[in-house]
Amino acid sequence: MRFSVLASGSTGNAIYVATDRISVLIDVGITGKQAEAALETIGVNPAELSAILVTHEHVDHIKGVGVMARRYGLPIYANEKTWSELDGQIGTIKEDQRRFFSVGEKKELEDLGIESFGISHDAAEPMGFCFYHGKKKLSVATDLGYVSDRIKETIRGADAYVFESNHDVELLRMSQYPWSIKRRILSDVGHLSNEAAGDALLDCLTGGAERVYLAHLSKENNMIDLARLTVKNILEERGLSVGDDVHLRDTYPDRPTKLEEL
């Protein structure tokens, strides 16, 4: 199983996951042109894509979904409530491209196992995904107001995690955001702070050299180095050696991560 975080952050999110038989995008929150450029950067021909999975309907996750689906004839998988929100945002989609993937459902697309799980966020019915190929597992969990025990149990045991580390609480509180937006981000249906990300990961990691991609960083209320340092300190305070027991990886809003294989 191969994957790359094509774009991640408050300005747009997209992830590529593939096996030798199938390749999918999780969200396309960037333009179609940007998605194509990111794929080409990692050596992937967009014409070889198989499907798009949608976590939820916020624009930083669906901006290019309609364009990519129409351009390459890709089926779009989303749950029923998310589809009800997508219909007015991504343009006309042919009926045979509209597929349903319910919360808690497990599907096999070719040789890629996919499991969805519900997350706490202010969208119609937001989801995260776990991917399985052979004995390997990739867990994708962003846009989390908080991480429930059920989510931890679902994503635990992965070889790699794409995990939200959205903001530094003090930077957010000192920012010029209106209080209503600050309150929304800090709420149980908002986004996960660096500290909360580190605490949640402690309950998921085994110290088996897992890779953790810190994702969905706020452009205004976080910094890559700060997110990594905060999570690193929390993990190491509890006895995990970053660099040995776990490997932290950065993600970027404007370029893809290296295409990695599990």
UniProtKB/TrEMBL annotation:
This is MBL fold hydrolase. Keywords: Hydrolase. Pfam families: Lactamase_B_2. One of its GO terms (molecular function) is hydrolase activity. The lineage of its organism: Bacteria, Bacillati, Bacillota, Bacilli, Bacillales. Residues 11-216 form the Metallo-beta-lactamase domain. It comes from Brevibacillus formosus. SUPFAM superfamilies: Metallo-hydrolase/oxidoreductase (SSF56281). It comes from the Bacteria. Counteracts the endogenous Pycsar antiviral defense system. Phosphodiesterase that enables metal-dependent hydrolysis of host cyclic nucleotide Pycsar defense signals such as cCMP and cUMP. Signal peptide: none annotated. It catalyses: 3',5'-cyclic CMP + H2O = CMP + H(+); 3',5'-cyclic UMP + H2O = UMP + H(+).
